[in-house]
C-alpha cells in the first residue's frame, strides 16, 4: 500500500487471515438470492436453517442506489420482525465524507434504535464516528492511519450519562501483496489477537490466528485459542479449505462456481476429540445472483 492509498477500516485490520479461517465453512442450510435491476435497485433474500434447532431465519433486503447523487437507501425485514433502514449520503458535503443513518424497529415489543455517524476517508487516513441516540447516548468510533503498507488504528466508545470511556482498543498491521500480519487488543485491553496471512503460491493461501481473552483466564491450559488454515484453488472456479484449532475442531469445505451467478459451498466442523459423539456440524450454502 502506497502513501497515497486509503487504509482499511479498523475492523478490517487482519481481514485476510480472518476471512480465510471463517468464511466458506457452512453449517446448516443457507440460501442467498440476489437480483440487480438496471435502475440501481437490488433485491436480496437470505435464508438459514439452524442445524441444531431446526429453526429457519431469513430476511428480505432492498437496496436503492443513486450514484449521481451519492445516495443509497437500504431497507430490510427479518423473520424475527425486525425492520431495518439505512440512509447513506456520500461525497455530498465534502469529498471523502459519508453521512450514515441507521435505524431498527421491533414493532412487536415497541423497541427502537437509531444511530447516526460520519465516515471520513482520505489518502493515509480512514475514520468512523457514530452516536447511538437511544442508548446512553453513546459515542463510539475508530480511526486508522496508514503509510506504505503499515496501518495503526484505535477504537473507543464513550457513555455520555455515565461520563466514562466504556470500551477501547488498538490495532496495528502490515499489508504486502503476498502476505499480511496484524496485532490487535480490544475489550479495554482484555482481549489480544495476532493474525498472519500468506499467499504461498498463486493457488495456495495459508493463515493463522492466536487469541487470548483475560475474561476467560481461569489459570487453566485452555485460555488460548490457536487456529490455522489453508485454501487451495483447484481452478479459477473451485477451491477447497481446511482449518483446525488447538481444541481439535476441524473445518473442511468445498466451494465451486457452477456458472456465473451460481456458487455452492459444502462443508462442516468435525470435533476430532469427540468422534463418537453426535456433536459434528455440517451444511451447504447456495448463492444465486443475477
TrEMBL record:
<keyword id="KW-0813">Transport</keyword>
<keyword id="KW-0472">Membrane</keyword>
<dbReference type="InterPro" id="IPR001925">
    <property type="entry name" value="Porin_Euk"/>
</dbReference>
<dbReference type="InterPro" id="IPR023614">
    <property type="entry name" value="Porin_dom_sf"/>
</dbReference>
<dbReference type="GO" id="GO:0046930">
    <property type="term" value="C:pore complex"/>
</dbReference>
<protein>
    <submittedName>
        <fullName>1940_t:CDS:1</fullName>
    </submittedName>
</protein>
<keyword id="KW-1000">Mitochondrion outer membrane</keyword>
<dbReference type="GO" id="GO:0005741">
    <property type="term" value="C:mitochondrial outer membrane"/>
</dbReference>
<dbReference type="GO" id="GO:0008308">
    <property type="term" value="F:voltage-gated monoatomic anion channel activity"/>
</dbReference>
<dbReference type="GO" id="GO:0015288">
    <property type="term" value="F:porin activity"/>
</dbReference>
<keyword id="KW-0812">Transmembrane</keyword>
<keyword id="KW-0626">Porin</keyword>
<comment type="similarity">
    <text>Belongs to the eukaryotic mitochondrial porin family.</text>
</comment>
<keyword id="KW-0406">Ion transport</keyword>
<dbReference type="InterPro" id="IPR027246">
    <property type="entry name" value="Porin_Euk/Tom40"/>
</dbReference>
<keyword id="KW-0496">Mitochondrion</keyword>
<keyword id="KW-1134">Transmembrane beta strand</keyword>
<dbReference type="Pfam" id="PF01459">
    <property type="entry name" value="Porin_3"/>
</dbReference>
Amino acid at each position: 500500500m502506497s502513501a497515497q492509498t486509503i487504509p482499511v477500516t479498523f475492523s478490517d485490520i487482519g481481514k485476510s487471515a480472518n476471512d480465510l479461517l471463517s468464511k466458506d465453512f457452512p453449517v446448516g442450510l443457507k440460501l442467498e438470492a440476489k437480483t440487480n435491476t438496471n435502475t440501481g435497485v437490488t433485491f436480496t433474500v437470505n435464508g438459514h436453517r439452524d442445524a441444531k434447532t431446526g429453526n429457519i431465519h431469513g430476511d428480505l433486503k432492498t437496496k436503492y442506489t443513486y450514484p449521481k447523487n451519492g445516495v443509497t437507501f437500504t431497507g430490510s425485514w427479518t423473520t424475527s420482525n425486525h425492520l431495518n433502514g439505512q440512509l447513506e449520503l456520500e461525497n455530498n458535503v465534502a469529498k471523502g465524507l459519508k453521512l450514515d443513518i441507521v435505524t431498527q424497529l421491533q414493532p412487536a415489543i415497541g423497541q427502537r434504535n437509531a444511530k447516526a455517524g460520519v465516515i471520513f476517508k482520505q489518502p493515509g487516513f480512514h475514520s468512523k464516528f457514530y452516536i447511538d441516540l437511544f442508548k446512553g447516548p453513546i459515542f463510539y468510533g475508530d480511526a486508522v492511519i496508514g503509510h506504505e503498507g503499515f496501518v495503526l488504528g484505535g477504537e473507543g466508545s464513550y457513555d455520555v450519562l455515565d461520563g466514562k470511556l466504556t470500551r477501547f482498543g488498538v490495532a496495528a498491521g502490515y499489508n504486502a501483496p503476498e502476505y499480511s500480519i496484524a496485532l490487535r487488543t480490544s475489550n479495554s485491553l482484555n482481549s489480544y489477537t495476532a493474525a498472519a496471512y500468506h499467499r504461498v503460491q498463486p493457488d495456495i493461501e495459508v493463515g493463522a490466528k492466536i487469541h487470548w481473552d483475560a475474561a476467560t483466564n481461569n489459570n487453566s491450559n485452555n485460555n488460548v485459542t490457536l487456529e490455522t488454515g489453508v485454501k487451495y484453488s483447484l481452478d479459477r472456479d473451485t477451491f477447497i479449505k481446511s482449518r483446525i484449532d488447538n481444541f481439535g475442531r476441524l473445518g473442511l469445505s468445498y466451494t465451486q462456481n457452477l456458472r456465473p451467478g451460481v456458487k455452492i459451498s459444502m462443508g462442516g466442523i468435525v470435533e476430532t476429540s469427540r468422534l463418537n459423539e453426535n456433536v459434528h456440524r455440517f451444511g451447504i450454502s447456495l448463492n444465486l445472483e443475477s
